[in-house]
Amino acid sequence: MGELTREVIRSAPKVLLHDHLDGGLRPATIVELAAEAGHALPAGDAEALGQWFTDAADSGSLERYLETFQHTVAVMQTAENLQRVAREAVEDLAADGVVYAEIRYAPEQHLEGGLTLEEVVNAVQAGFDEGEALVADSGRTIVVRQLLTAMRHQANSRQIAELAVAHRDTGAVGFDIAGAEAGYPPTRHLDAFEYLQRENAHFTIHAGEAFGLPSIWEALQWCGADRLGHGVRIVDDITIDLDGSARLGRLAAYVRDKRIPLELCPHSNIQTGAAASIAEHPIGLLTKLRFRVTVNTDNRLMSGTSMTHELAALVDAFGWGLDDLQWVTVNAMKSAFLGFEHRLQIINEVIKPGYAALRG
Ligand SMILES: O=c1[nH]cnc2c1ncn2[C@H]1C[C@H](O)[C@@H](CO)O1
Ligand SMILES: [Zn+2]
């Protein structure tokens, strides 16, 4: 589709469900805050630092990818810095045409400067509020909510789940677990997930990224996840016959039948070795098979990406058009943890009119 230039994709309304706050800082902000905090960086200027992050994250291993976060988390240890990073994330997403975003981070990783968990969540919320207001002043609109993540190798998930429930009416719409997947199955945190279910709360689980079907199965059938963070390895349960037809195993059929949202993050998967290239990424197959596909950035800094960049790559690789972009956007909005009426309002008043205007 010739008319789908980057500028058209940028101006199209987009919805982002899987974006890490500590994976999306501006390199210039890290340089400035690291100097103040006395934190040594692997590169001295913003451009070189941005390049260092994408190179270092490009290792083919999730564990090595995650090591780079030490340099972002190090500058997110005061309320002032957290608020700034959160505000800038909202501004950057709005400038990229994102109209709704759920941004996640692990509060337990931001206590080294003496903040309490409560203060961390409040500082991030202050940044989101400030960002939304600045964006509104500039004539755009964006709605941003928090997801609180617990680290899967730690033992704080129940406490973080309680924190998410405590802030459910003040900006936090859900919970997540993240970190190295192999060796840390989601059932380690069953207590947290059962608590959330009793509280009628929403959660997603990073599963099926660096580890395959057992992780997805546990996340859904033991833990009760509403969505799958990545979930890309559900393709391991799909067989393509010689005539090209697809056969779904029981788990893949369950995921599709139940419309379980897949928070796919194509460029991140290439960096961590979960996919070889965009053209070979399972998102092509999963879209054809009508899974509940959503497109996400994961870590804009480490993956050198944006929603526009992710979608442009899919347009190039799979010939996606405006209908496909609208489909993944509506899929994502339907799958958001925001209340139903608010989701519907964004679909009907922002997304659909936005795409209609682009069709001219
Ligand atoms: O793609 C990911 N898989 C697992 N863990 C991740 C991924 N991206 C970021 N994280 C981790 C590193 C961050 O410090 C943490 C909270 O955002 O989540
Ligand atoms: Zn992630």
TrEMBL record:
It comes from the Bacteria. One of its GO terms (molecular function) is zinc ion binding. Catalyzes the hydrolytic deamination of adenosine and 2-deoxyadenosine. One of its GO terms (biological process) is purine ribonucleoside monophosphate biosynthetic process. The record marks 230 as: Important for catalytic activity. Zn(2+) binds at residues 18, 20, 206, 298. This is Adenosine deaminase.
